């Protein structure tokens, strides 16, 4: 590294490695490789404010007493391939990544809940979603159902624009063999995730034959819409689509539409506000209402506490469960304190 | 407004562009290789009238606003009578039918190109050597290139440059065989061991000096605009010869790049001379900061440039087709 430091006068962050500053520490989001790393807020300053300075100027700015630590910083940044060394003339050749987000779809994702009294007209709903360009669909079954029944519903998506399907189903009462699980999952190639809730134990079904579908079992009883909105490190997503969308839009609710177990059309089934019922309204009619789209643009830069959090562009938001009555308050199910850098146990 | 797209079945980039066209409320006819085109009637008169059918949908050329040749080719349904080719007479007859179909196809392409169009149906199989020669004539730097079947000549070439590569004159090769496995042939460095086992003469092949690259450039060109991505492939020896031998564990850094205006100007002339209004151009920046040109892929895998650089090229293509 020290050789490189000598040969080249400047350094440049790769455009897809983006530092995000938090209240007491920062992270570098490596959007390309889908990972992040913690850095100090001092290093954040160097990367964002002083990135046009030559390396020599940075060293002299911080003085001899900081030389060692700076060398360590540069070594870390180049060994992780967050930066490369270059000449002054090259700086202008590498623009920042344009982080604007847009989509040809009016609705990009949807949730449909099925409870004991649900009576959804699935073929019609799927046609409506197709018309809106919806790509991702989550179906949640809160009460007993059979794999056959679910397969039949999923079959209605066959000719739609949906590319990713997730289903959450209660653990079957009837003894089910591994082969039956696999043949269920392979009955629809769009299935990317199947979760069986209320299972005897947490486990993952090993299956080499379906590399693109995850089949999981969880002890959690997902028997109503309360089981959502948990914020955890393991739910962080890091890719260019979600990162750019989170800049100006809500990372959970943007371009989402939901139908709850009673047919109410909502932003998300866990929210109390309904904009109509699928029996009487079309999804399009609801989307035309200005009010419906309001939550789409509540972004992390506006949400209290989150706006000071280094995870704000990789964390999915939740607006259904929030900590106070203030619509801009932090998700209630987040235990992270960005001022103390700690995850509090509940 | 209607757009006709010619593509192959399952091409995701095509579907992404179609999503944007639908967003702009534009009707799309996708002609892929699943079906053949049925010609209903062509009236050659003052007001040309060309009508055809595809996948049971009737299409009238007059209603088509623009046309995108993404990849693949159209095939026109012709009598499916099977002739034995044993006799010269039948052979000639089949040949004649082929010619008939070809002429009709040419005419279709001609008509399509009268419309606003993207891609050039006659240029998908572009000739690397002609492109290199044209580029050089325009003052664009290219790697020193030798085509030979003679070992001595190759040895001289190799001693002139520290390192040389061999690459196919046509496209890369990927061959599967149950016994042998997968053989790929893209770009390879010629080692001294390779040379040792070579006979005095061999199949005529293309050799180039190996350019020491600071970074590679993948440039998507559409209607005068350039969208460039730099690929840092040198960090990792596994990928430093050909980026397509992709390294999945730690993918090469791919970032947006500002192509200098002087380079853009030369490339614009080259594209015009090749009669291409879109394509993917491969170049590299050398350790001495020179821009060296390698090749153009008229089909252009724009998805691999669009996504990492957030360029939304799918939308730009849809915009072009609908304006
Ligand atoms: S807003 Fe909260 S409860 Fe609703 S879908 Fe998003 S995370 Fe779940
Ligand atoms: S504070 Fe906000 S941004 Fe940070 S982890 Fe919690 S919910 Fe996510």
In short:
The complex is a heterodimer of chains A (346) and B (323). With 346 residues, chain A is an alpha/beta fold. Chain A is built from nine helices and 15 strands.
Mean pLDDT of chain A: 93
Q: Nearest-angstrom radius of gyration of chain B?
A: 23 Å
Shape of chain B: globular
Count of individual beta strands of chain A: 15
- Distance from N terminus to C terminus of chain A (CA atoms, Å) equals 44 Å
Organism (chain B): Pedobacter cryoconitis
Keywords (chain B): ATP-binding, Nucleotide-binding
Domain ATP-grasp (chain B): 132-322
GO biological process, one term (chain B): SOS response
Structural description of this entry:
Chain B: It comes from Pedobacter cryoconitis. Chain B: Keywords: ATP-binding, Nucleotide-binding. The complex is a heterodimer of chains A (346) and B (323). With 346 residues, chain A is of the alpha/beta class. In chain A, 23% of the residues lie in helices and 19% in strands. The radius of gyration of chain A is 24 Å and the shape is elongated. The model of chain A has no long low-confidence stretch (mean pLDDT 93). Chain B has 323 residues and is of the alpha+beta class. In chain B, the strands form five sheets. In chain B, strands 16-15-14-17-18 form a five-stranded antiparallel sheet. In chain B, strands 2-1-6-7 form a four-stranded parallel sheet, sandwiched between helices. In chain B, strand 4 and strand 5 form a beta hairpin. Chains A and B meet through loops of A and helix 1, strand 16 and helix 7 of B. Bound molecules: iron/sulfur cluster (2 copies).
List keywords for this structure.
heterodimer, A: 346 residues, alpha/beta, eight-stranded mixed sheet, 9 helices, elongated, B: 323 residues, D-amino Acid Aminotransferase, Chain A, domain 1, 3 domains, five-stranded antiparallel sheet, 29% helix, globular, binds iron/sulfur cluster
